[in-house]
Amino acid sequence: MSEKKTYFEKEYIEKQQQDASLLLKFWPYLKPWTGYILLIAVLLILRALVYVATPAVLGKLVDEALKPGLKEPLKPLSFTFLGLVILKAFLTFWLRNLGSQYVGENLLYKLRVDLFSKFQRMPMKFFDKNPVGRLVVRLTSDVENLRCFFESEIIYMLGDFLMVIAMFLVMLYKSWQLTLLVFAVVPLLVYAIILIKDKLRESYGLAKQQLAILNTALSENISGIDIVGVFGKQSERIENFKALSSSYRDISISSLIYRGLFDPVHLTCNALSNALLIGFGGYLVKNGAITVGVLVAFLGYLDGIFHPIMRLSEQLIILQNGFASAERVFGYFAREDDIDLDEGVDLKEFKDKIEFKNLTFSYDEDKTVIKDFNYTIEKGDKVAIIGRTGAGKTTLASLLKRFYDYSEGEILIDDTDLREYSLHSIRKAIGLVQQDVTIFSGTVEDNIFLDPAKKDPEKLQRIIKDAGLEQFVETLPEGLNTKIYEKGSNLSAGERQLISFARALVDDPQILILDEATSAMDSRTEEIIQQVVEKVTKDRTAIIIAHRMSTIKGCNKVLELNLQ
């Protein structure tokens, strides 16, 4: 029976927010790049003016060319038109690169680091209730999806909006009748965009949830591939993965269906506007109300309006994916951190005793793991904690390290409540060696120190000796600089455990907790580890959580916990 019976929580999402409200959350990240943003704004305005001027110059060129008695080539107007076309291309290139290279990449870097830092500050119960796959998707895929807010899509969206407004004003000036006729079909397109937008974001959100579930299943299956093989359950795991993949596929297809509705509506509106413009515009030309050049310019404006509107709808589709990701990413930023590591009194020296007074704790409201627990550990004690699985042995260690806060009662160190000490000093004063050792990719030395700033050659040699790593290090091809594979797959269980002992000794803890540090080991490896245990606990207060009687040799106290 497990002590920690928790279930994954429903993901907290900052939903039902206006798009503008979500965009405002990016301002702290945009603020350092104000200069670039202003430059981009100037270029956007210039680009809009160039797009407006191009059809006007073309119309003027047509009118001049149709004048009777033309004797000289229209070089100035021709070169002006060519120059505007080239300038449009360069402005588009500059905007794309300014947006992505200088603002977008740096902003995404900062956002990704901030989200990772946020995860580091979250309380342990947060990780109990959030699967790894979900957090990985948020940190990678969802942050990457936010790229659309700061690179070409959002820049083109702003630029296209300026172009549509500018062209609309120029068209009104040239012929209000033609302008109103052309824009009569625009509300239909706008209505379609608004109608589909919310459905599309909802669909993208569901896809992200399903992708997180899929990634979690993938991670579990790859990590447990040996267990799957031992029990011959490959076919069952494949079927399970197919079912999850099928759900993700179906949701993704629904997104594609919503997305595909934009093109037919746009093409219909564009064709209708062209037909109305050519028909009514031709009538106005015939009656002398406008020139052929004005009609040509209007055709250019129509193309210049509907293409941006089409791009706006496409960009809006892309932004729905970004908004769905933003709701999830900023949902984590809105959550409460673990308490400040440095807040509280420093536990500089453990002088007297640890007291558990009327301690009660539960991981979930419906299941109490520890109830009205009382016990005292004196300085220098070697206390063995035994009991059935689920009795609360590991929970006591977690509470003492303050991975969780207790709901009732007290834990006192030298007559001061544990919660009054800073987390940083608690975790420095109390070392922990766990049953399941986490090994990171890197060198042996990296895995001992974890923090490069703490590396010290003299301390390292002392730790290697105390942790019984001397013989192990001598067998390594590059000594302490030998690379360790993912999860320590090129190390034995005993070697991984010795590294865990060395890691726990880096801060020279005054209190050492050994949480079933010799479980699941053969007798020879256990004997080596036991010698290390005797050495590292000699001048320390030790709490040894054990399932074998051989592990508790040398303990002066034995505490037996019973199931609640």
Task: Annotate the secondary structure layout.
Blueprint: H1 19-24, H2 27-30, H3 34-66, H4 75-121, H5 124-129, H6 132-145, H7 152-174, H8 176-183, H9 186-223, H10 225-230, H11 234-260, H12 262-286, H13 292-333, E1 353-361, E2 370-378, E3 382-387, H14 393-400, E4 408-413, E5 416-417, H15 423-429, E6 430-433, E7 442-443, H16 444-449, H17 457-466, H18 470-475, E8 483-484, H19 493-505, E9 511-515, H20 523-536, E10 541-545, E11 557-561
Helix pairs in contact: 3-4, 3-7, 3-13, 4-6, 6-9, 6-13, 7-8, 7-13, 8-12, 9-11, 9-12, 9-13, 12-13, 19-20
CATH class of the largest domain: Mainly Alpha
The secondary structure category is alpha/beta
Mean pLDDT: 80
If you compute it from the alpha carbons, what radius of gyration comes out, rounded to the nearest whole angstrom?
34 Å
Q: Whole-Å distance between the termini? A: 12 Å
- Biggest β-sheet: count, sense, barrel? 5 strands, parallel
Would you identify the CATH architecture of the largest domain?
A: Up-down Bundle
Instruction: Tell me the name of the CATH homologous superfamily of the largest domain.
Output: ABC transporter type 1, transmembrane domain
Tell me what portion of residues adopts beta-strand conformation: 5-15%
Query: What is the helix tally?
Result: 20
Q: Helix proportion of residues, in percent?
A: 55-70%
In the CATH scheme, what's the topology name of the largest domain? ABC transporter transmembrane region fold
What assembly state would you assign to the polypeptide chains in this entry? Answer: single chain
